[in-house]
Write the structure tokens for this entry.
Amino acid sequence: MLPHFLDSTVELITRTSTDLPPDVRAAMRSAVQTEAPQTRGGQALTIIAQNIDQAASCEGPICQDTGMPTFEVKVPVGANQIELRLQIREAVAEATRRGKLRPNSVDSITGENSGDNLGPGTPIIHFDQWLEPEIEVKLILKGGGCENTNAQYALPTDLDHLGRADRSLEGVRKCILHAVWKAQGKGCSPGAVGVCIGGDRTSGYLHAKEQLFRTLDDMNPDERLARVEQAVMEEANRLTVGPMGFGGQTSLIGCKIGALNRLPASFFVSIAYDCWAFRRLGVRLDATTGAIASWLYREAATPSVPMLPAGTADGFPRTGREIPLQAPITEEQIRALKVGDVVLISGRVVTGRDAVHAHLMKHEPPVDLHGAVLYHCGPVVTKGAREGEGWKVTAAGPTTSIREEPYQAEIIKRYGVRAVIGKGGMGARTLAGLKESGAVYLNAVGGAAQFYARCIERVAGVSLLEFGTPEAMWQLDVRDFPAIVTMDSHGNSLHKEIEEASGAVLEKLGARS
Ligand code: SF4
């Protein structure tokens, strides 16, 4: 039994969830400097930068989706791995109780949330032995939005816009560019990719994820792979996908490639996409006490250098052209909006994501949705321990909207919803539904959970709590909640435009080979 191991692991989880490592901060700072501040991409990055600083200063989750906790543990010979595994699980439950992790472990058959992030397969813990005297624990928190944009290719194959990808490094380059292009804003760009060439389907994905433990500024020791990494970085940032898929010059902040041997018949390229909320840290521990001896990826447990200069005003960087919207909203107000408008929403916003959408297809909503703003969001909420203390939202960014595509148009029409807030955009069926019913899709900045939590004045109520806190229907009173109209009621979609424009660039990059 190591007396400090549990506390050290809780500290590691807390830091990882709330404070981005210096290499990611440096990459994001460079992105902020690249995009012009008054562009959509520039505004999104300013919000992201504020969010990063806010999360570190209040020790709140950087993004409300605190992801799948994945631990890579190296132990000296003789360490009791059974005991360490139990303590890591206890640390995960404790960090969840403290609101540093959102309850994210859901029974795949019943949909029931375990409430403490423990369950079959969660958290993921990998052990290895090594010859060092200390214990090393590395942790990555990778959320669902970016996990869903992972991709695996079996070469040779044909790719949209890029043509044939052969079994060569050139084919690998094309696959990575294709994956970045497909991710658009759904994985909260700018992101980073870990890539594995080879292996089998299982080991390929694992090795791809392991590449994300490399720092963004390191150099691949294999010169051939280093060249591909560099080429992808240059080309992906010419795609014009931009921050959150809003268009711009920064789509990728890192590309890390590894290779495993493969069977002669197989040639997989596995890609693990991580978002800008690239939460990865590690510690070295004294193997006799479990106390933290040193941090990996950061100097010490002191707060990181802020993203924004001291004195930068908090809040949305306004241009004076923002349109205030008070919920409930009328059809006339909605029809006046067009793609590119920035709105500031005040009044009641109702959350709803996967479970709520499936529920509303068969049941009446528990609250009136006429004129409502429906927010695709699974917040982190805590309840005061004392009698009479209510709910508090501590992180509340948007989730990926495309998952609700099969339901959205019908729910808008049936219940009179006027605005949907989410991220990454929606498809043709929803676009047609917005036009028919007089509604808009508003894109908020993905992962900016602290920023948006500060726009919430009050939790007015909650319904369907039996779905678990991320999936419940929270009624939130907000003030000046900023979002961009990216799909309007006239059939226009910024997402479609950016996808087409970036597809044309991709075509040129494909023709290069
Ligand atoms: S920043 Fe976006 S993709 Fe990343 S975990 Fe948060 S919501 Fe998911």
Remarks:
- The chain is about 30% helix and 25% strand.
